[in-house]
Automatic annotation (TrEMBL):
Name the record gives this protein: Uncharacterized protein
InterPro entries in alphabetical order: Puta_zinc/iron-chelating_dom, UCP006173
Annotated organism of origin: Novosphingobium fuchskuhlense
Superkingdom of the source species: Bacteria
């Protein structure tokens, strides 16, 4: 997660392949949806979304509590890259990485557009108040949610 914004103007409008690492990291809107567990049906390959968050997700901020060391603490945590983002089918439709990879603009509620990191929550696109930690959840199968929960549709 970015500490401070890069100072290269509206960098988020550039093609993702042209972004620096800091610019790429700054695209994250902090919704927390990518940190929710998913279940894949072994027979069909269908992905089922849950409201269960990785133990590192701070449910009050929607941000990783140890972003720098997350791979050491959660080995299966996926590090999104400009190349990989096009191959991850479960990213929500509102994900800035996905939007920019598809050449789409960021939504008006994205902090890079509006200047307010809390707008993602106010616009209904954050997991804040909607997720439970894996530490408390129990069986993931009991926490499957409708696809619109994870896809970016406002609830």
């Amino acid at each position: 997660m970015p500490g401070s914004l890069p100072s290269s103007g509206r960098f988020w409008d550039k093609p993702i392949e042209a972004l620096t690492r800091d610019e790429w990291e700054a695209l994250c809107d902090g919704c927390g949806k990518c940190c929710l567990h998913k279940l894949e049906d072994e027979d069909t390959g269908d992905v089922h979304h849950t409201n269960v968050a990785c133990r590192l997700l701070d449910l009050s901020t929607g941000r990783c509590s140890d972003y720098r060391h997350r791979k050491a603490m959660v080995p299966d945590c996926l590090r999104l890259t400009p190349r990989l983002v096009r191959d991850v089918p479960w990213l929500p439709a509102t994900c800035a990485y996905r939007l920019r990879a598809d050449g789409q603009p960021l939504p008006a509620w994205h902090y890079l557009e509006c200047g307010d990191r809390e707008e993602v929550r106010r616009a209904g696109h954050s997991v804040i108040g909607k997720a439970i930690s894996e530490v408390l959840a129990g069986p993931l199968e009991e926490h499957i949610v409708p696809e619109d929960f994870a896809s970016g549709v406002r609830r």
